[in-house]
Design brief:
elongated; single chain; 3 helices
């Protein structure tokens, strides 16, 4: 059949080979503290949006749509801004 595998010193991992070349011991991996954001990543302001089915009168929707067109935003974005301002007390 084939040759048996050699698990001796000549079968080193890449980290061990690099460490031997630098005459340094490989550094152990450091765990990030719980809830910490790794470098290169950012936290999203909020998780995925929630869905909401909302029944409104056609005249109210038409007024919202016209206002959204004037502000160059979507009806959804306009409603979110109106609700955020209401919650803030504006």
């Amino acid at each position: 059949m084939g040759r048996s595998k050699n698990f001796g010193m000549d079968n080193l991992t890449l980290t061990e080979v690099i460490a031997q070349g630098n005459k340094q011991q490989p550094k152990p991996l450091q765990k990030e503290p719980e809830g910490a954001v790794p470098d290169g990543y950012r936290l999203a302001p909020e998780p995925k949006s929630k869905r909401l089915n909302l029944l409104i009168r056609p005249s109210v929707y038409d007024a919202l749509k016209q206002n959204a067109i004037v502000q160059n935003v979507s009806v959804n974005q306009l409603i979110n801004e109106i609700l955020q301002n209401y919650i803030k007390g504006e």
